[in-house]
Amino acid sequence: MLCTVGRIDQFEHIYYNKVAMKDDAAIARLLDPESLLKQQLGVKLGHQVADLGCGGAGYFTLPAARVVGSRGRVYAVDILRSALDGVVSKAKLSNLSNVEPVWSDLERVGAAKVPESSLDEALLVNIMFQSRQNEAMLREAHRLLKTGGRLLVVDWKVEPTPFGPPLERRLTPENISQLASAIGFTLENKFDSGPYHYGLIFLKT
Questions:
Q1: pTM score
Q2: In the sheet where 145-156 sits, what is the strand order?
Q3: CA atoms within 13 A on the CB side of 134
């Protein structure tokens, strides 16, 4: 069972204290959600998106909700109810009514109560290194995406960084691409996502 404390929450003291990133502009220099969502992944108004392993900060969930607008929907999926409560609270404060919390264990294929083959895009951001059931998480994303839907994977580069998870917990882009290819994804793009992360875009064919 994926029982970590959430993608951004786990390193919150690092992002917000050690690096002294207190405002959105500074945070965007590390990972820029809006750029990743719009320019790399192609999220648009009216789309259906799932943030898989959303964490409590809503770091990608809330920007995605703004991009898809009132006609779209963003499913915030996490195993921690406290994380979901945090996202819902932040969405309300931001006057976003299109965020739907979903409690689920991403390591159980079929567990997420999201309509199958309904998503335009799905996100796995800073979550793969937290699990050794990576194939299951990719399969769950594949199940939820419609044909032609895209998956964004962002994770830590496998190289020394000033902070972040231990190197032995990190996965190479090749590791993830091999797993994704075996279950029916096609790699569309690989890119640097800030100084410490890489990004991968997969297409469900």
A1: 0.87
A2: 99-103, 73-78, 48-52, 119-125, 145-156, 197-204, 185-192
A3: 23
**Residue in the structure block whose two tokens are 């083959």:** 117
The CATH number of 9-204 is which of 3.40.50.720, 3.40.50.150, 3.40.50.700, 3.30.1330.40? 3.40.50.150
H-state helical runs in the chain: 12-13, 24-28, 33-35, 61-68, 81-93, 134-144, 173-182
Structure tokens at 87: 């996202």
In our burial notation (b when 16+ CB lie closer than 10 A, e otherwise), range 121-151 reads bbbbbbbbbbbebbbbbbbbbbbbbeeebbb
Query: Where in the chain are the domains?
Result: 9-204
Alpha helix positions (H), 50-133: 61-68, 81-93
| Per-residue tens of pLDDT for the chain, all 205 residues | 443 434 444 443 333 333 333 344 444 567 899 999 999 999 999 999 999 999 998 999 999 999 999 999 999 999 999 999 999 999 999 999 999 999 999 999 999 999 999 999 999 999 999 888 999 999 999 999 999 999 999 999 999 988 888 999 999 999 999 999 999 999 999 999 989 999 999 999 9
Q: What is the DSSP letter of 41?
A: I
Bridging pattern class, strands 185-192 and 197-204? antiparallel
